[in-house]
Design goal:
Layout (H helix, E strand, L loop, with lengths): L7 E5 L4 E4 L2 E4 L3 E5 L10 H15 L1 H4 L2 E5 L6 H9 L5 E5 L2 H6 L1 E3 L10 E6 L4 H5 L4 H4 L4 E4 L3 H8 L4 E4 L3 H8 L5 E5 L3 H7 L6 E2 L3 E4 L4 E5 L4 H17 L1 H7 L2 H12 L3 E4 L13
Parallel strand pairs: 4-5, 9-10, 9-11, 13-15
Antiparallel strand pairs: 1-4, 1-6, 2-3, 6-14, 7-14, 8-11, 8-12, 8-13
Helix pairs in contact: 1-10, 1-11
Length: about 290
């Protein structure tokens, strides 16, 4: 499920925790409560992000103290999620970044998906493959209409690059709208699309074979601007995991991430570069 549909952490710091130079001594562990997830399902985005979060916290336990994680019975997404974090009702979310989000919240600038979320493939109806095979430039792509959630940063990027767009609120309905010919393609993350096309076999959708969109779209953890300690802990934990290889080990254990990286290595698609929001679009013929 889309990364931009982020998940939450609610942090209840139990009193009696004394931070010292050598680490943290606590009378009781901190608690991080996350929203309801599908963290048991390796094909669901929750699996990777919750496991990466757990990894980052474990790497920093000696320095910052123990944390107990449990799940709420509810899940909050998109703009409502951001509002909850701004209001300090929750303490953390993960999301594709944007200038607006970085102005409102404090990003932990370690790219959770490496470069995978900077590349997107098109989900289409199979009978339209010949039409998309003739697309060589961004101007060619503008002859088609895409579909996107109205609350995703990707919608702003596509519109800023002059791409016609049908917007809807929600996620699952977009696949049905594509199948119903409400628009021509649905731009999906390189790490998302393989699972998604298999998840909706009755809709008879297909991954477009020749094109790839590219624009900067890193996924970060975000915390409230006042919560610098949590941001520091997450950054330290992620960087430690990168150094000892456990970050890569988790990343490479996700089948669809491996598939996405293989697509990048093949380098067989025409890459259309979209500029990030306010820049002039350009095209890479290869």
């Amino acid at each position: 499920m889309p990364v931009s549909r982020t998940f939450v952490l609610v942090s209840k710091i139990i009193a009696g925790c004394l931070l010292v130079v050598s680490g943290a001594v606590c009378a009781a562990p901190q608690q991080l409560i996350i929203s309801l997830t599908a963290s048991h399902d390796i094909n669901h985005e929750d699996y990777y992000f919750t496991h990466l979060l757990t990894l980052a916290l474990a790497k920093t336990e000696r320095q910052y103290g123990k944390i107990e994680i449990s799940e709420l019975p509810v899940r909050t997404v998109d703009k409502r999620l951001r509002s909850e974090l701004i209001a300090k009702n929750i303490d953390l979310l993960w999301s594709p970044t944007s200038p607006e989000l970085e102005a409102e919240l404090l990003p932990v600038k370690v790219s959770l998906l490496k470069d995978l979320n900077n590349y997107r493939l098109l989900l289409i109806r199979p009978e339209m493959q010949a039409d998309f095979s003739r697309v060589k430039t961004l101007n060619d792509l503008r002859k088609f209409t895409g579909g996107m959630s109205a609350q995703w940063i990707d919608a702003d990027i596509m519109q800023a690059n002059g791409l016609p767009l049908v917007k809807a609120v929600g996620y699952g309905k977009l696949f049905k709208m594509l199948a119903a010919k409400r628009f021509d393609y649905f731009s999906r993350g390189l790490y998302q699309i393989q699972t998604e096309v298999n998840f909706y076999p009755d809709l008879h959708l297909a991954i477009e074979k020749d094109l790839m969109l590219q624009y900067p779209n890193h996924v970060y953890f975000f915390v409230h601007k006042d919560n610098k300690l949590l941001a520091e802990r997450l950054k330290v934990g992620l960087e430690l995991a990168q150094k000892d290889g456990s970050f890569d080990q988790l990343f490479n254990s996700i089948p669809r991430y491996k598939w996405g990286m293989e697509q990048l290595k093949l380098n067989q698609r025409r890459v259309i570069h979209l500029q990030y929001l306010d820049k002039t679009p350009s095209i890479n013929p290869k």
